[in-house]
Amino acid sequence: MAMGCVDDVVPEPPGGAHLDPDAAARMLDEKLIRHLNELKTMSTEERLAARREKFRTIAQFYTV
Question: Which ranges of the chain does DSSP label H, i.e. alpha helix?
Fold first, then answer.
């Protein structure tokens, strides 16, 4: 996350997702909805600019 390659981390339910797949799916759903709602507030141009900047930053990590 510190390098900007990861947008968020989805936690697992206690014991791991394999022990409670329904809870894991709910946790993932919450993160996806939150990020989708953030994206929906942005214009197409803003989303494209943010995406370009993110991938430029990732590329700089690999070229340094």
Answer: 21-40, 44-63
Q: What's the Cα-to-Cα distance from 42 to each of 14, 36, 39, 60, rounded to whole Å?
A: 35, 10, 5, 25
- Which residues are within 8 A (CB) of 45 and not within 5 positions of it... i.e. 6 or more apart? none
Q: Contact, 58 vs 4, CB < 8 A? A: yes
Is 64's pLDDT higher than 60?
no
pTM for the whole structure: 0.72
Q: CA torsion sign, 13 to 58 to 2 to 39?
A: negative
